[in-house]
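Handout, section B. The chain below has 443 residues.
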Amino acid sequence: MRSVRSGAALQTFNIVGIGVPIQITKAGQTDLGGALFALAEDKDNMYADMDLRELLAIRGNIGDCLAVTYVSELTDGGNEVPFSKSNIHIHHVQFDTQASDGVISGFSFEQSVRPYKIVDPQLTDAVNPGDTVLALTNVTKFQPGVWIGIGLGTDGIEIRQITSINTLASTVTISQPVNNSHSINEWAGTEFVQYPWLPHVELDNVFFHDHVNGVHGWSHGMVGQLVIEPEGSTYHDPVTGAQIKSGAIADIHTNNPLIPGVIDGSFREFVLWTINDHTPVEATLNLRAEPWADRSLDPALRFSSNSPQGDPFTPIFRAYAGDPVVIRNINVGQGTNVLRIEGHRTFWEPRFTNALGISSSPIDAIHSTVSEKYTLVLEGGAGGPNHIPGDYIYHDGENRRFPKRGMGHSPRATQRGGEPPAITRSWQYSRSKSDLPHWRAAP
């Protein structure tokens, strides 16, 4: 897909819908009907490793053109969607409502897809760069003029138009040569959809989700966030410093302000979904939970990493005390949520300043309902205005959900042991998760 905006940087995301069991608690409670959006390049690792199965957070910069291709590896059967179809609907960005909205209504084109392994053929011969003929297990579904995806479910997927079909040889001829190598048994067919997304202004975090099984699929994991960063930003793994294409926790390197006078340069970012109406645990944080029932019976240790249970199963976000921190939160559920961050304050409207120069009032709990999204800037950064190192809890502030969802380590703020050479190296990141979410600020 080419950029549809002249001069815009093009970012490509090949997304695959996958059905996998997802472990929700450290004690082993698992959603056997789990389903996730995954980048094609990460898909095989997510199938193989339960610990890598997480919600999809992708990023783009203001003014970019994001080229998204979606295919499904979900399966038929089950009570919710016995005949599987899925798609992606995104909020807020500019897109073609007839073909890139995901929602199928009125005069819109069909924008949902069937699982390609159920309805599409496979290559019977390998395809090399420059080839224009595809040998397939079956060609009866095709006709000249149709667009075909070659390498469905892979990061090397290519889209070409069919010019002719030889039913006797079971081949199709395409309008342009392929650029990539495609091995025998790769899948090729029409069960794909492309979405150009155009984030033209500071949209912050944007919700995207399946719009076929929205009532049930969201709680199983068919949700994601697109985070719009300042122009010229790059996104990095907090431990290695390597650039990354996805992930809930990242260091954002930029010379442009996210919010002038508040976040003027690089910052740490934590993408957070509060998800309710979920089975087997009703309330989760990024599809992880640490119910009180799984913690120590000693009230002094229940919320402590020094308990026999150690860190909670929910995500742990780590920073040096004073590091600028931005949390991108979306409420995924059919009711209300209260996100509370102990020891820290944030703002309803971090960009608001009135004519008298008075900013939005700081608060320590965010009340939200279905699909509401917030960009939460921590006042004073990790460890608060006084930059106090330690473990801080974030949790659902609703009494009916806190005991079920539990808590998580919010920023784990750590004291600095000498200035690190780069912001990526100063952020201590751990993939260990807890349902008592913790935020760990290091001195």
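Note. Residues 40-48 form the longest helix (9 residues). Compare this with the example in section A.
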